[in-house]
Amino acid sequence: MNEQLVDFIKYSIPLKIEYTENKGRYVVATQDIKKDTKIVAIKGYSTGIIDSFKKKICSVCLSINNEGFYDISCKSCNIAYYCSKACQMYSQRKLNHELICSLLRKLATFKSDIHSKSIMKLLINSLSLKKSEEEYMRLNSSNDNIINNWLSTVPLPSDIEEYEKELEELKLKVIDNNCEKNNDNNIDKNHIDEEELNKNTGENKLNIDNQESISSSEDEEKKKKDKKKKKHKKKDKEEKEMKKHKKDKKKEKEKINDNVINENEINKKEKSKHKHSKHHKKDIETNEEEKEDKNIDIINEKDVNSEKYDTITNTIPYSGTYNDMMNLQSHFEEWTDDMKREWQKNINFFKKLIQESKEIYKCMEDVIQESKNNSIEDINMDTEVANYLMHFASLVESNSFGIWNNKGKCIGRIIYPFASYFNHSCRNNCYPVQYKNHIYFFASKDIKKGDEVNFSYIDTAGVSLKERQAHLLADYYFKCQCELCCEEENEIISSLNNKKKKKKAK
Fold it and tell me: Which residue windows does the record flag with biased composition (Polar residues) (predicted)?
């Protein structure tokens, strides 16, 4: 959330970034903010989706398929899946997916824990974005406002809509061509020859699967009937869920009116996913237990309030640059020798892996050279790639957020560079909610102008001062000195002093 890159006033975001030596960078409210207000929406920069869930989540917009699997995929690597052809086009045109196909395919075969693999995947995706960024800068080097122009090209839902329109227009063209050839005006728009469509888009590299045409009229009729049955079943299921949802809401309102739910319980429901860290490693590796002890806010797309989760109001319309991500805090220097040894197997594999792509390896070399301010001849690349990977792993552990499905299972991780400037507080005044590839921050209480805006990195409900501070120190490398912790520390000190006075009096 660099002041130079974000015009907060222009985007109606009531925030600013301040800095102190003690706190580092932190977020401050520039106006009074009422409880439940959407403060800001932030787009993710890069993701690392766990391979076993790759068919359940769109690689571009992160739309989760809770009822089945997506069937549109990149046929070169079979790692990236998409919810629509528009997202697939976006991946090819804007995310430079072609560059990393072979790397992702090889990474999928590597026998390592999924925690480490998701970090390596996130780095590969990030280097691909970095390459896109460099190419744009090279082609537009004469432009004074080059960075802002690059940021404005970073894909947003509006880009996806543009691709959808493009696909629709091309479909109509194909229909018109077929009508002229066949003299038939009753061609079904939804059963267009995909090869013809790809030919018109010039996107043959997308390798979109051709749907099998059904020659027999009986088979066609059977297919329609099956589709109708599924539609009715789905509708019935949705109606049942809606009734249950309304019933639950009614009960909850009655409880609130009867003062049964106290303030802590309400706040607990409002909280969302906590920041990702190494303490999730075991959960990511097993993925067997639901996160019952976490306050996970799962957003079901069917029940989404589109106004609440829109990406127009209070939205930063870009996700940042590679450098924005790499400028986030890493705690690599605080890693123990054992932690570094744990990563050695991953490092050896990763060094060989990225050497298989000249473009990505060159990108990595350039990044390391920039950070060292040395000529490439003076740098030991083997050592520096190892250090860079561990530095990146530490950065991801401290700054990434988990991506969760509706069962509370972690299916990947995502970095929102601008969200990392929100500090932790055990008495937080906002909470994050993730929906698709955005994170939304809502006020959990009234916030005054000039107040720091913060959220809780961990579950603090019913957790003692000692446990909270130990948890944060182990996973985020800081001793919490928030308002609540200071109050509780002072109470403990005061209590000890009173006991000493009583002993002396005796």
Answer: 199-211
